[in-house]
Q: What sequence folds into this?
């Protein structure tokens, strides 16, 4: 199984040190809400494109940017996980060169954030084991969590995910980027998005330019690819107007 995966992923002919990146994306029913192109704020009706449409556009641009860069083209491995009623693997880890970044993400259901994050962590751990098996150097894994609201089911699974992320950050085994987008009220009093780490604060955008965010992410990947695998990387300032969640 591992040998087949490596062959498909150009492990044999591509000696670059790898940057494993997992996008963990909320595709719950609220992601079907459209965005007003007049005010830029979210609303539940009107003839505009949905939050999910803009998110998918942003992901496609991320892949395009990574493939266009001669360093990230060979270094970045991406997996995409979605969560609604449960967690699901949209695409397992693979190099970006052979992928379009066009995924059929359809909003539905609840917000089982715990299932999504636990699945993402499992994929990242499995990928690290494959790197070790192949003798391939790799950088700190990245986990980008994006949601438009707090979890509303499987709170036990969420708390387990929060513990796992916290432990990984404390041991310098994970770069974690938690991003909320939408009204502050969507994140409730508990603000579970901010409970994954004592040192990494979640950010919230009222509205988010996904292309700008994913451009920042691709530029961060470029910086990582030109560093040493033994270095601890600190992401730079995120783009746009956001606030840290309390």
A:
């Amino acid at each position: 199984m591992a040998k087949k995966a490596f062959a498909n992923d150009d492990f044999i002919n591509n000696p670059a040190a790898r940057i494993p990146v997992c996008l963990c994306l909320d595709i719950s029913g609220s992601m079907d809400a459209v965005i007003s192109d007049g005010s830029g704020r979210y609303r539940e009706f009107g003839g505009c494109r949905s939050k999910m449409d803009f998110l998918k556009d942003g992901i496609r641009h991320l892949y395009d940017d990574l493939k266009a860069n001669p360093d990230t083209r060979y270094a970045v491995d991406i997996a995409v996980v979605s969560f609604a009623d449960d967690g699901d693997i949209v695409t397992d880890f693979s190099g970006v060169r052979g992928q379009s970044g066009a995924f059929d993400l359809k909003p539905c259901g609840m917000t089982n954030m715990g299932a999504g994050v636990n699945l993402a962590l499992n994929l990242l751990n499995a990928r690290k084991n494959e790197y070790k098996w192949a003798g391939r150097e790799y950088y700190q894994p990245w986990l980008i969590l994006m949601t438009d609201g707090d979890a509303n089911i499987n709170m036990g699974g969420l708390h387990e995910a929060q513990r796992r992320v916290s432990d990984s950050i404390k041991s310098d085994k994970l770069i974690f980027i938690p991003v909320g987008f939408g009204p502050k009220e969507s994140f409730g009093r508990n603000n579970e998005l901010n409970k994954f780490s004592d040192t990494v604060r979640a950010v919230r955008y009222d509205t988010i330019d996904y292309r700008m965010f994913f451009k920042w992410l691709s530029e961060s990947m470029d910086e990582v690819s030109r560093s040493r695998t033994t270095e601890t990387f600190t992401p730079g300032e995120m783009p746009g107007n956001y606030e840290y969640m309390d």
Observations:
- The helical segments are 2-8, 51-68, 72-75, 113-134, 155-170, 210-225.
- The longest helix spans residues 113-134.
- Strands lie at 19-26, 76-83, 87-95, 142-147, 175-181, 203-205, 243-244.
